[in-house]
Write a structure and sequence with these properties.
Layout lengths: L1 H51 L8 E2 L5 E2 L7 E7 L4 E7 L3 H6 L1 E3 L11 E5 L18 E6 L2 E14 L14 E8 L9 E9 L2
Parallel strand pairs: 4-5, 6-9
Antiparallel strand pairs: 1-2, 3-4, 3-7, 5-6, 7-8, 8-10, 9-10
Length: about 200
Amino acid sequence: MRKYIGKTIKATIVSIIVALIITIIMVIGVYLFFRAQIDETISLINKVSIDLENKQVKEAILNSENEIRNYPEYGTKYATIQIPKIDVDLPVYFGDTLEVLKKGVGHSSGSYFPGEGGSIIYMGHNSSKMFRRFSELQIGNEITVKTNYGEYHYKIYDMQLIKETQVEKLPIQEEKEILMVYTCYPFNNIGYATQRYVIYAELQK
């Protein structure tokens, strides 16, 4: 009787493990097969969200002292970022919350704005519609940020893989205009990532 019960329990455990493995394989398979469609659907949802939340943005003005008047309201679009090398042309929103990042590229509220002469920090998801192709970028590639008060061109001079805790790798300074753009790493990561891939670019005058 004990042998029978032992065999039954063992068989049940094996069945559960096999079923779990099959389920995991199926979930991964479905994700890989429909990944493009999933990303496209998310992009459409984000576009609708942007359209619904299209707020009136105050026109920013950069004066002769490189100071901006009428800063955009938090959560509003104020620029676009273009990276020709990887076919990126995305809206930039002032703010770095999850809601903002659903819409496009976020601008850390603790950093400077383009044209002010200091550190600028942008961030975005690593989806196929955003920054998944960051690995293709090279030193010397150009990044353009277009705002309603001017157009700014930056050239990449460095790329680094950092931990999310290494805030010293994203320094805020006012001596030189540096654009830092980062995304989660690995680029095809599923779930939470603890690493960041950072692009460093300097303003071209």
